[in-house]
Amino acid sequence: MKNPPETMFETAFAEDTYKGLTNYPKYLLSKYIYDKKGDKLFQQIMDMPEYYLTSCELDILKINSEAIAKSFSSDSGFDLIELGAGDGKKTKIILKELVDKNFQFDYLPVDISQNVLEELESSLQKEIPEVNVKIQQGTYFKTLEKLSEYNTRKKVILVLGSNIGNLSHKEAVEFLANIAQAMSEDDMLFMGFDQKKNPQTILDAYNDPSGITEEFNKNLLVRINSELDGEFDTNSFFHWETYDPETGTAKSFLVSKKPQKVVIKRLGLEINFEAWESINTEISQKYDDSIVNWLADEAGLHVEKYFGDKENCYKNYIFRRK
Ligand SMILES: C[S@@+](CC[C@H](N)C(=O)[O-])C[C@H]1O[C@@H](n2cnc3c(N)ncnc32)[C@H](O)[C@@H]1O
């Protein structure tokens, strides 16, 4: 049953879950962590002291908001398209600056989670009502197919939170190349990349003692139970994090504490787990300038400039088409 007919699946979540759990080694895709509960858990992660990514990027955006807003601006206005916008916590710093400076723009946040987009829209109505916001539910790759339709004025593509780190280098090049293809000469890409640093700092960011990250990862099993009639006992798995300083890849796993069979009724699947067998649930790639330049070059982009925090733990790069 390795290649079942596509018609067997009701949703992309069902199909991807089937593929991941019948693969060896087993995996699940992190984009499915984000539903109402996953969104809330990610907001709690952003508030954790160990999750340095948020505070580093917030600092960069606050300190450089004027220069960043200026680099976005254009006499004829622009479209600000944010991929994987989440709750827009950090984006609001830039949106506020753009509004204060009277720049003309539409804000198009894209996210796989309809829930987080609705929250973002209503919080913007309260906090920065001047922003003309048009939420777009969908995956990055589906949205990128439509991106070149925005071609009547400048496009600024925004990706914060080191979202690109959830992709392998091969997928990241494909992602960047798709963006590059949709860009014209004046368009720009503004993207955050978490940097390589003390491996312990990275491990701690994905391994908090309060167990929020564990619950976040286990939300995949919770969603399989509720949406696909699965029978995972979430207590019989635990969260495990690794970081390889050579490749710069942090990986999250759920590890089975015992041999067990798990039925997923809507997929007609019974999955066997050996004791200590893992499911890879997320990768969080870390970068340095040479890797970012290499990815850009492969994708047909070049780095124009970057903004870093004072220790260069995190950097936001401006890319243009080559
Ligand atoms: C790590 S969070 C970061 C959110 C925000 N950019 C920030 O920095 O706070 C990733 C966000 O991207 C969304 N996301 C993840 N994978 C996605 C995909 N393949 N397509 C669209 N959205 C995705 C998630 O729903 C989530 O809101």
TrEMBL record:
- Superkingdom of this protein's organism: Bacteria
Keyword Cytoplasm assigned: no
Q: Which residues cross the membrane?
A: none
Q: Which GO biological process annotations does it have?
A: methylation
Q: Where is the Histidine-specific methyltransferase SAM-dependent domain?
A: 14-320
Name of this protein: L-histidine N(Alpha)-methyltransferase
Keyword line? Methyltransferase, Transferase
Q: Which organism is it from?
A: Christiangramia sediminis
